[in-house]
Each structure stands twice: as structure tokens, then as C-alpha cells.
Amino acid sequence: MRKKWFVSIMLSLVAGVTLFACGQVQSDNGAKDNEELSVVTTFYPVYEFTKKVAGDRADVSMIIKAGTDAHGFEPSARDVAAINDADVFAYSSGEMEPWVGGLMDSLDSEDLITVRTADADSFISTDVHEHDHQESNESNESSLEVAEDIPTSIEINGLAGHYHTGDHVQLTSATTQIEDSSSIQWYIREASADWEAISDQTKETFEYETTGVNFDVKVVYSDDAGTAYAQSVPIEIVIDDHEGLDPHIWLDPVLAQDQVTVIKEALIQADPAGKAYYEENAEKFILELKKLDADYEAAFSSATNRVFVVQHQAFGYIAQRYDLEQIAVGGISTEVEPSPSRIAEISELVKEHAAPVIYYQQGADSSIAQTVGQETATEIEVLYDLESVSQEMQDDGMDYITLMRKNLKALQLSIQ
Prior knowledge:
This protein is α/β, with parallel strands linked by helices.
């Protein structure tokens, strides 16, 4: 029986790549000669980089499909089995895929090589370049009691789940039971605390600026006598600031080269006979990344306007690498049209920075961005964060280099 094998591969500023082994070294020196290497990756950037290096010598799969949030992903029993049977498992980071730590504890593989491709020491902070919302959230001095047995017949539309500190939560309620005389009250609940009425949230639309604390929110409808008759199921608002670090490291073409090198070393460790093949593939792809970096540098080197406004704070690595400034609006829902107050806030932001374009992320509903653009007399354009690239896009020839070049072209609309 082969000894249990676990390798964690990290970037090293001094030595380039360092391999750490927990347990004893595999006795058969890598993958068997006549077996195709099996590699499981988490989400698109890791998958794409691995495919470029592995070429035809490995079967590379991706467990997080397009449209699925990598942060909150929960691997299925089939996913766990695939990883357990693989030769190599590659992911980005514990900050991007926080569930990986628990997954590794549940595996029973004796020869799996696990590679973390992103070095946390290279991460940038998320506490800069974030638009400072000026709104305050007002709550009653005391909690209000709401019966828990009121029918939950009200639906809530809007973005639930993942937010960052300072994002603007906007939700709307919908029910067929509402009468003109009905009163509306929104409540929030933090941790194990009681439900608390938010005094200025008494309309169908709920608007709230996050403070860094997770909370639940619900809406209650009462009749003209003050008796509650309907409420919503609580919606969970999760604040995930990635411990103050930005994990979107693959959007930097220079740091992406380091990730490719780490993946190459993992494949060589698993399949020493393919060393020359993996090195050649990695070298070709790194040359493409270097050309991409040079083109970004040339495009922005002499720009006088270096600010760009985005829907979500995901492009800080591009900003840092090329001396740009990313201004994130934060919290625009793909389900609910922004309120007049929210439009006014964004309009002021656009005027302040003389921004000709507001960027929204690929995968978000562009109709909301259209509304923002029309109301602020601003153009809208898509940016690709590359967390998710659909199979249809891949079949149409869209890959990392292609989409990063689309980002370059889009950003030149603002940065001139």
C-alpha cells in the first residue's frame, strides 16, 4: 500500500516554489506510466490555468459550475469522491474557497497532491477604494415583539447572501394580501439577538447599509388596527470581507504567472515523466501572460483619468498593478431596481469622479445597470471577474486571455 501523501504547494518570494509534505513520500514516484493523470480543480481560473499546463496529458475537471458562488459552495458526495480519487486537487485559496479546509479533513486518499495556487502574502486589502456611503441606519430604541406564528406569505425580492461591509442592501416585498390601509415594518436580527424594528424602513422597499455584521431581515404587514397578519421568511444577509483581503488574485497577469508556475510544479510532482511537456506548456502560457501585462501597461501608462467605477469591488488587482483607482458602488441587486435615493447617490459619485462609464460584472442582470446608466446619463459596460465562465462562452472561444483583453478594451473607455 502506498503511504498517505498530502502536498500543499505555495508561492515563495525567495525560492519561487516550495513543496511541503505532510506524511511520507509516495513510494511509486508519481502517477503510473500508462494512466492518464486525474486533476480536479475548483472554479474557472484554476481550471483554465491547469488546462493550459496539463494539455492532453491529464483529465482536468472543475467542480464549481458557472453561476455558482465559490465562497459558499458546498461539495456534493460526488465531488468529494472525485477529489478523493484524483491525483491532484487544485484550488485558489482558503480566503476564496473557505470550505476547502473542512473538505481535506474528510478525505481518505493515500496519494492526493493538493495545491493552493494563490499566496495570501500577495493579497491586497479590501479596506481601500470603497465608496463611503453617507446614509445612516436608524433603529428603534427597543426591540418590538412580533409573533412567530404569523403566516409567512410574503416574498422578498433582491440579493440575499454575500455582501461586503458598506454595501447597500436593497430588498422589496411582494404579496397579494396587501390592502391600502396596511402598515409595513422591516425588522433585522443580529446573531442571537431579538428582532428589532428599523424605524425608517416602513415601505415596500428595504434599504440598509451594512456595518460588517451578519444579520437576518424580514418584513411584517399589519392591518389598520395594528394587528400583524403576514410576514416573510427571514432572509440571511452574510457579510464576507475575506478577512480584509481581496482573493481575486488571478486578475493580475503578473501574479497569474506565479499561479501557473505552482500548478506546473504540482503536475510534475504527480507525473515526473511529463516534466518537459508541462514545462513547455507553462512557458508558452506565461509568455502570453507577459504580453497581456505589457499591453495593459502600455494602454494605461500615460492616462490622465485613472479612476473607474464598478458595481462590485472585484478589480483591485488590476487597479493596483497599473496604478489605477477602483471606486466600488457596492450592493446593487440584480433583482431590484435601485431606488431614487440610491440613483441620486450613484449620480453624485459619477459627477464627483467625472466617470463616463459604470461597470457591472459579467453574470449580473444588465437591465439594472441599464437603469442606473439611464438615470445617471452614464454609459455601462461589462467587466469579467472570471470567477465563472459558462460552457457556452468557452465553446465560443472565450478563455482567460480573451476575456482579460475584453476587460482592457472596456477599461479604456474610462481610463484615457
